Structure formats: C-alpha cells, structure tokens
Amino acid sequence: MHSKEEIDFAQWHLSAAYLIPLEQGTLLEFVSSVGRMTYDYSREYKETVVENNQSDRHSTYYGEHRHIENKDHTNTFGLEANYHITLLDNLKASAGLGYQHISDADDKHELVYKLELAYDFTNDFTNDFTISAAYRNVDVFENYFVTVRYNF
C-alpha cells in the first residue's frame, strides 16, 4: 500500500485590548478577540491486492487509487485578563486567564491560560527591539510563540 497524507492547519486572530496601569511595573490588560481556524486534510493511497492461485502458480495484482479530502473551519471569540509585571529593567512577564468560544467544537466554551516572558533590548542602536516567548492553552489546542518585534 502506498500512502501520502497532508494536513494544513491555519489560524488568524484579531484582538483589541484595554490597559490599566497599576502599581509601578505592573499592568492589567483586558483583551477581546475574534478569529478563525481552518483545517485542510488530504490523503491519497493505493491499495494493491495480490491473489495467488495455488494450482497454476500464477498471481493476480490489482489495485485502486483513492483520494480523500476534507476542509473545514471554525470561528472563535474570546475574552482574557492578563497581568503584566516588570521583573528587571528589561525583563517582563505576563500571565493570563480567560474564555474562548469555538463555534464548531463539541465543548464550545474553553478555558484559556497564557504565560509569556519578554526581553527588551535597550542600547543606543536598538531602543525598541523585543524578543518574547509565549505559551497559550485553550483546552482543545495549544500555541507556542516566539516573537521578534521592532517598534517604530
């Protein structure tokens, strides 16, 4: 049997946030979001069947080529609260908790939690350059991000 399988999963997310400064070095962020997840699955395979005839020692080969394709998408809507804290002058961390509604999931209401660590490079040449790593869990899927950002 010969088989070829392809899976493509794409996601986009548009968010708006409201920031509330707290004590020095801390910030509370409320985020609302809308997004879409698209799933594209394709599989091709060919089965070969061999029949052996014992009486005349001949074999018969035959096969069938099959193609299976499935495309689907779902919409997402979410609310989150994130707490940001400055650990050192250039090192910042954030943690968040929220809710996400996934239109076509079995359990439509998903708990979201998020952790992020960011480092700001500050010197004469790169005032607004940041690198960060984040983890986001939405019960039914996880996202890992590494972000490089330059602020103009």
Strand content: over 45%
Largest sheet: 7 strands, antiparallel
Q: Classify the helix fraction into a percent range.
A: under 10%
| DSSP helical segment count | 0
Question: Explain this structure to me?
Answer:
With 152 residues, the chain is an all-beta fold. The chain has no helices and 7 strands. It has a domain of 98 residues. A 7-stranded antiparallel β-sheet has the order 1-2-3-4-5-6-7, with no helix packed on it. The model has no long low-confidence stretch (mean pLDDT 82).
SSE topology sketch:
Elements: E1 2-21, E2 26-53, E3 58-86, E4 91-102, E5 109-121, E6 129-137, E7 142-150
Short recap of the structure:
InterPro entries: Beta-barrel_TonB_sf. The chain is 0% helix and 79% strand. The protein has 152 residues and is mostly beta strands.
List keywords for this structure.
152 residues, mainly beta, seven-stranded antiparallel beta sheet, 0% helix
